[in-house]
């Protein structure tokens, strides 16, 4: 379900990310690997086959291919717990959503509240009902802590790193390019308990938010 929003004129509060570290050593490794790939990417594009040539600066993949590549190097136990060599976004969501919130299990800890997310944490959502069947959902990494959106209660803006063909707000990717790895800002809407319920792909410039099942997790090994 889409929820109409009027966000174009809203501004996001300044980031305090510089003072916030990843919550676990594994999350720190994941963030380091993801940002390292972003910094070394000379050529990047969005495609469903993962092709990485690090020395040449080539990083071509989709969101789940990128997430699997990063976890394999930063949190291999969390990746292996999904039981698939090449998991898709739906698998990431399932692994996070089934994890406990009070202790880690199989390399994952689920975060009940989006506001508790820290750099290096992982978000994943499943394809919304009645959405085109081109993919199973989306997955990416938190780069900065969530920030409240003024004048819109229950909305949090999050700076993320992902792989996509459609850039987000304030994105590092060329809007006329082929997509691939990059950083941008999206907005999540949360319920009264702080759980994410909707995403707004273009951040505060979005015209609507899409309702779907969203999970936020933390890797521990």
> Main beta sheet, described?
10 strands, antiparallel
- Strand residue content: 25-35%
- How many angstroms separate the termini? 35 Å
The domain count comes to: 1
Task: Write structural notes for this entry.
The protein is an alpha+beta fold and 221 residues long. It has one domain (2-219). Helix content is 19%, strand content 30%. It has 4 helices and 13 strands. α1 (25-40) crosses α2 (63-74).
Gist of the model:
The chain is of the alpha+beta class and 221 residues long. Helix content is 19%, strand content 30%. The chain has one domain.
Kindly list the characteristics that best describe this protein.
221 residues, alpha+beta, 4 helices, 30% strand, globular
